[in-house]
Structures are given as structure tokens and as C-alpha cells.
Design goal:
Length: about 400
Amino acid sequence: MGKIDLGTTKYVIHARIETNGVVEKPDVVGAIFGQTEGLLGNDLDLRELQKTGRIGRIEVEIETRGGKSRGTVKVPSSLDKIETAILAAALETIDRVGPCEAKLVVDSIEDVRVSKRRQVIERAKEILTTMVEEITPDSVEITEEVKEAIRLREIREYGQDRLPAGPNIDESDAIIVVEGRADVLLLLKYGIKNAIAVEGTSVPKTIIDLSRKKTVTAFVDGDRGGELILRELLQVAEVDFVARAPEGKEVEDLTKKEIFKALRNKVPAEQVMDYLSIKKKEEPRPFAGRKRGKKASAASKEDAQKQAEKNGKLETFKKFFTDLSGTLKAYLLDQDSNIIKEVAVRDLAMALKNSKDVVSVVIFDGVITQRLVEIAAEKEVEYLVGAKVGNLTKKPANIRLLTASDLGIS
């Protein structure tokens, strides 16, 4: 605040000034005194107020570029807030500085006592820190012990695998999967109560089951161990986002700022899977042994027929998608793969939403988005076929998403 005396000042008027010619600091100060003289009567005359110390020294910063001058004006005041506001309004009547046209605009009136309070608070913190460190060091330990006891009371064993978890796993739509108990405790310390730990490199069934119902963020260490757990999670569970500790650091050693920064910078799981060249593990099918007789034979024929129908559908989809490639258009198909409607991709969501026909398949030359998936699910669409899949938070179970690569198109 320059040379303004905070000891006697209650308020500081902050203003901007601009002139259409070259002026200097004395010109601006002279204009302020000259053009407000007699405007507000003797009681609020600037010269008289400055003589009695109720207005401090007016501070002006001015610079000239391209034949114009711009700068700031600060007027310290020990008047009350109403008189200060009147004085600020009077400053805005200044329309000339010397021979130049000018415009002065008040930006704010600062209450200096707020600054003093901040100084008091900061100093009090310093004094308290010194007192705690030098006089009563044990109080810090007591506080931490109490906080630790609260965190230990909040942590629970969750699911059939009795995994360490925060208290809000069931209530939250989203969960954070971490590596160990210490990570859960640290997140609890900073108010994050929807974390659950894997507790090992083998992903428990509890985590797999939760991932099918909730939005999952995997938050792992920034080391080799973290990558191994992440690879396993991405293969067997339905992970939506991935967050990692900074390289070489473990989650349990992070500061509050580092934790929230890592979670804020999470990336879609698909992106990480592509980067690490990870493919989903196929769930094992139960082996029931060979069935004999007519029933087994009929079942085999039925499965073969279904597979043939499926292959036929995929070939049809491939043909349609090839026709659409590069057109930015979409086909809406019925159950027999007949084209119901052709629309531009930009109008696809609205066309599907408003369609009166039963749409079984949507094929289009574009990216499958979350909004489109949700509309398709509402319309009970069976297949959604696009160039690629965007960042989806959840995919409904009753819809199948196919991309160009799924159809064998590179």
C-alpha cells in the first residue's frame, strides 16, 4: 500500500484514472484537489481534511503509452464509511487533468481494519505455534492421538473379504479403491470417507462386485507395485477412472494437497488401458461336463444358430458402417436390420429421443458419448455402433457397444 499510514487510516479508496494525453503525478493530484473544491462544502473539502489529518497523502501511480496516460489513485481516509463513500463518488466527477480529458473510476473501498485483523490472526498463529512447540509440545501429540482414535473408529471391515473401508461405501455412488489400510486411514484424515482397500495384489470379489454397481476410481502408488495392482484391477474389475500418486511416492505418504491434486487429475480407465496395452480378462464359464442325448444336441444346435445370427448381424453392421464412413451420418435400424431413418450425426441424439419407431440398432460415423448411451438405453436399443467409444462413466447392462475395431475395420 505504499506510504499509507495504517495506524490512522480506516479506509483506502482505490481508483483507476485514464487520460487522452500525457500527464504526470502532480497534474493528477492538482486535478483531484482543484475539481473537488467547494463540491461537498467545507466539512468535506479535501484540502481542509488533509490539513486536519482526516485524509492522508494521496498516492498516484501513472504511466504513459501511445500518447495516453493510465494509472491508479489511492486516497487514505479516517472519515466514517458514509463520508468516505461520498468522497469516493466526488472523485468520479473529475473529467480533466490539465488540458487532457480524463476519466476516474473507483474500483473499491478497502477497510484497513480487515488487514489489521489479518495481521493479528497471522501473528496469533505464530505465537500459538511457538507456545505449542516451546511450552507444551505434548499437546500436539494428544491432539493427533485423539484424531487417530476418531479415524480408527470410523474405519470398518467391509464385505465378505472384510476389507478396510471408510464409513460411506454403501451410501456413495462413487468409491475410491486404494491399496492398503494405511491409505484408507489417510483419506479419512482429510475427510474422504468412501475409500476401500484391496489389501494385496489379488483383487477381492468384494471389489469386483462393488465396481459393477458404483463409479470406481483406482488410486494407487506411483511405483512398480502400484502399477501391478492397477493392471490387475483394470483387467478384472469395472474401473472408471485412474488416479496415481506422484512418481516414486506412496499414497499413504502424500500431503492433503497432493491427494486432492491426484484425484482431481484422474483420467478415464480406457485411456490407461490403451496406454498399458491391457485387455479385460474373460470371466471363466462353469464346466458342466458333456451332455448326451437329444436335449444336448438340440441345445448345441440352438447355440450354433444364435452364433450364426450374431455373425450375420455383425457383417450387416460392418457393411452399413463402411457405407457411412466419412459421411458424418447415422442409420437407425429395426430388429431385422432394415433402415428406419438416416440422420446427420449432430442430430442423432434428438432424432433417437423423438423416434416413434422401435429402434434396435444405431450405427453412426462418430464417437459414442455418455449422453447417447443414456438415450439409447431409454429407447431400449440393443446395439450402438460408432467409430470409437468416448469417456463413459457408466454403461447400462442392456446395451452392447461396438466400434469399428470390433467389426474388423482398422
